[in-house]
Amino acid sequence: MLNFPSIPLKTGLASLALLLGMGSAQAQKYTQLAQTPPMGWNSWNKFACDVDEQKIRQVADAMAANGMKAAGYEYIVIDDCWHGRRDTLGFIQPDKQRFPSGMKALVDYVHGKGLKFGIYSDAGNKTCGGRPGSRGHEYQDATTYAQWGVDYLKYDWCATEGLKAEGAYTTMRDALARAGHPVVFSMCEWGTAKPWLWANNVGHLWRTTGDIFNCWDCLQDNGGDWKAYGVMRILDMQDGLRQYAGPGHWNDPDMMEVGNGKLTPNEDRAHFAMWCMLAAPLIAGNDLRQMNPQTLSTLTNKAVIAVDQDPLGVQGFRFAAKDSVETWVKPLAGGDWALCFLNRGRKSQPVTFDWKTQPIHDDVAKRDLAADRTRYKIRNLWTGCEAGTTAKPFRAEVPGHDVVMIRLSK
């Protein structure tokens, strides 16, 4: 087998593609992947190992028909436990009882809905669910995924004794590139090896924390080093990481718990809003086949999604905090700004923001919100209502465990 050098994703994949005989158009597909945070659905948060082809088809049907596809969601990702055994040559096969039609048929079905298909593997010998991992089979697995037409790979970090994260993920990146089918590469290393310091040329997104837990502000200790974190805990763990994110390489605070039942509607709304302020991948984790109108409305709010998908690609930051209310700011393309007032407390809180006495500077975007020199119009992104201009201080009431989110436009 030929050995290819480790080549930076943004600058080198075109060269690698040409080396492998690809055309320039196909090479460009690699370098242009995930220019905005990926949007889609993943099976784990709701179904864990209880996955099969009928369920995945039904979820794809729902996404295509319920307004999520129209709002920008496109990936249907099967997480752990789809695997069967490897064949005599070492090629991975799907579980024949759960996926009797084969994975290629399921991928074709999802593509037929105008959606894209994602799959899961692990850098170790076994996945977190005990199925065959990709260690030692990276090029075989990448070739198999390409033959199936897979568009997205979530790559986990269980059973990786003796491996170094940067090397292991680079190996799979090179395998995916050589296989010749553009694949968004989602690195699920839990932030242990600080992938934000080295992964912008390896993966398109990388997990920054351990697993999310369906709770507003909790810590779930599962024994040993395995902990899960509530939404607010995950949010706090993003501090100091924003300078590493941007088009084609995103911090990933994990999949969303919106609509999974333990968060209140207010908390669901705040969870979704803060992921959008973080420029986070928007990967739903609920049962799309059974959503109440409120959950669907939260997940498909196009004005809020536009903040997440803004082409400038700058992650928001916490500008100020007073009592239980935090003020978050995100610069947007075209000179616009998004502000989100997050109330972590249970009681409703009033907020007042005086544009002229509270100037905002963003060191990452190198931009100032100069409302003393430029007047902006204000729009409430959850109500859809105009809210005046920056000629006067902005005032609002933020319900407990909720947000008020606004967009400023010149």
The unreliable regions are 1-23
Q: What is the highest CATH level, the class of the largest domain?
A: Alpha Beta
CATH topology description of the largest domain: TIM Barrel
For the residues shown, what is the average pLDDT?
93
CATH architecture of the largest domain: Alpha-Beta Barrel
Give the tally of β-strands: 23
Tally of helical runs: 12
Strand order of the largest sheet: 12-8-7-6-5-2-1-13
- The assigned structural class equals alpha/beta
Distance between the termini: 57 Å
Report strand %. Answer: 15-25%
Q: Taking Cα atoms only, what radius of gyration do you get, to the nearest Å? A: 22 Å
How many domain regions?
2
Largest sheet: 8 strands, parallel
Let me know the CATH homologous superfamily of the largest domain: Aldolase class I
Shape: globular
Helix content: 25-40%
